[in-house]
């Protein structure tokens, strides 16, 4: 009897091990490489392998479910294809998962075949080693080449500077020697009376000015004009900060977001199209993406920056919003971010972003590209703010002076095919065509009130 029980227990253990091994083998039957592609396409918005996002971490999920819940891959197939039907069937663990994750229903994937799911599970059980990013290697190689070239150029410039300094010193020495020789020749040729006279003669600035007063007055006039010009330039430069690019409390690279990832400007600056002011995006806008993007995995690296730097800046976003990535909830106290403003229109100036972005979009793009054939733009924002998608740190790209705005109004043609302009200025367009026949029907912004003071100043 005892012997029979021992054999029975050994049999149960063997069956359990067999089921576990079968589940693991079943998961490993898939193609991890194809599973990785399917995972990134269908699952990566809510899951990673190593940590919880919207849903749980999926690394080793097959073995974990077998050990903790005694569930095999068939359960996972049912859950992935239609988890709602599985919950409604009364499955205990399916409902527990649903309750644990705040009753957030997972998107069903009935389109995935059994082979696709096996591939995904194979990837979660045995993910292939990540291949080195070709873009990153190319970037690093290019940076190394640029650094080497810069170093070589610096060495050449240093050598050239040394040669130039030595040459100047030699020339200066020759000039001093020639002056001394000339002085000696003069002393030898002058008479004793002339020498005594030169020794007693006194020279003064007053005597020179009396003798050459016309030249003196002319020089004073030139100096006065130069001084006036310098003061005028200084006064006109007040409030002009072209090239200003302050450090921000959280590093944000427009090159990565707008350039590498092709994120549209208006996704973050939504009020630029429909409002007067293009606002600074709230931290909630950042969290729309970074709730699920907790680390930088891009190929592009700005010189002097590394992955750890970018990951640290993402953590600053979490600290500012009070987000806890472990619990996937806002459990900490949020902290305000003191952004440094770059563009700040004076209070006495009226400027409406919507008027330019919507009504003037095509006209501004067309005008800019005609005036700058080597600096073409595809988005209206770039006409004023420069090619932001190439800037690691955003800077003020233009003067933003009154003269700069007026020059734009004088050269930008009104879009006659714009639905708003075509209807609103219908009669005015016909009048202007007759008034400016040489323009061949092309009307610039100044002709429809673009230079009137009251358009921009209250």
UniProtKB/TrEMBL annotation:
Spell out the SUPFAM superfamilies in the cross-references: Cytochrome c, Multiheme cytochromes
Which Gene Ontology molecular function entries are recorded, alphabetically? electron transfer activity; heme binding; metal ion binding
Signal peptide annotation: 1-27
- Tell me the ranges covered by the Cytochrome c domain, including all copies: 30-128
TM ranges: 163-180, 218-241
Tree of life domain: Bacteria
Which CDD domains does the record cross-reference, listed alphabetically?
Cytochrom_C3
Keywords in alphabetical order: Heme, Iron, Membrane, Metal-binding, Signal, Transmembrane, Transmembrane helix
For this protein, the record's PANTHER family field holds:
CYTOCHROME C7-LIKE DOMAIN-CONTAINING PROTEIN, LIPOPROTEIN CYTOCHROME C
Q: What is this protein called?
A: Cytochrome c6
Q: Which organism is it from?
A: Chryseobacterium taklimakanense
């Amino acid at each position: 009897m005892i012997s029979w029980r021992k054999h029975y227990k050994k049999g149960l253990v063997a069956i359990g091990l067999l089921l576990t091994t079968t589940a693991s083998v079943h998961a490993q039957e898939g193609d991890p490489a194809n599973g990785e592609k399917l995972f990134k396409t269908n699952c990566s918005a809510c899951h990673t392998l190593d940590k919880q996002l919207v849903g749980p971490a999926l690394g080793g999920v097959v073995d974990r479910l077998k050990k903790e819940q005694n569930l095999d891959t068939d359960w996972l197939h049912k859950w992935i294809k239609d988890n709602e039907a599985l919950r409604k069937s009364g499955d205990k663990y399916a409902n527990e998962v649903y309750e644990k994750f705040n009753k957030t229903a997972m998107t069903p994937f009935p389109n995935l075949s059994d082979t696709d799911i096996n591939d995904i599970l194979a990837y979660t059980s045995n993910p292939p080693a990540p291949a080195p990013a070709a873009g990153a290697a190319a970037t690093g190689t290019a940076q190394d080449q640029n650094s080497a070239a810069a170093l070589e150029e610096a060495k050449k410039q240093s050598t050239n500077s040394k040669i130039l300094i030595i040459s100047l010193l030699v020339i200066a020495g020759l000039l001093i020697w020639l002056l001394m020789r000339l002085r000696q020749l003069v002393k030898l040729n002058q008479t004793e009376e002339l020498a005594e006279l030169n020794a007693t003669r006194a020279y003064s600035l007053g005597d020179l000015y009396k003798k050459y007063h016309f030249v003196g007055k002319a020089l004073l006039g030139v100096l006065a004009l130069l001084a006036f010009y310098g003061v005028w330039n200084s006064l006109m430069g007040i409030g002009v900060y072209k090239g200003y690019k302050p450090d921000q409390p959280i590093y944000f690279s427009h090159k990565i977001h707008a350039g590498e990832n092709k994120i549209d400007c208006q996704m973050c600056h939504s009020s630029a199209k429909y409002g007067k002011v293009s606002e600074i995006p709230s931290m909630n806008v950042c969290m729309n993406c970074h709730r699920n993007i907790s680390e930088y995995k891009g190929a592009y690296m700005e010189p002097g920056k590394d992955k750890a730097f970018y990951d640290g800046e993402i953590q600053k976003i979490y600290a500012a919003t009070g987000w806890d990535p472990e619990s996937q909830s806002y459990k900490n106290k949020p902290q305000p971010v003191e952004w440094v403003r770059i563009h700040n229109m004076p209070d006495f100036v009226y400027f409406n972003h919507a008027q330019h972005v919507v009504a003037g979009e095509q006209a501004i793009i067309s005008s800019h590209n005609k005036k700058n054939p080597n600096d073409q733009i595809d988005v209206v924002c770039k006409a004023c703010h420069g090619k932001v998608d190439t800037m690691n740190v955003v800077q003020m790209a233009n003067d933003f002076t009154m003269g700069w705005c007026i020059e734009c109004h004088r050269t930008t043609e009104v879009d006659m095919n714009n639905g708003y302009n075509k209807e609103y200025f219908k009669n005015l367009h016909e009048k202007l065509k007759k008034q400016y026949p040489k323009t061949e029907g092309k009307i610039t912004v100044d002709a429809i009130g673009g230079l009137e003071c009251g358009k921009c100043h209250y």
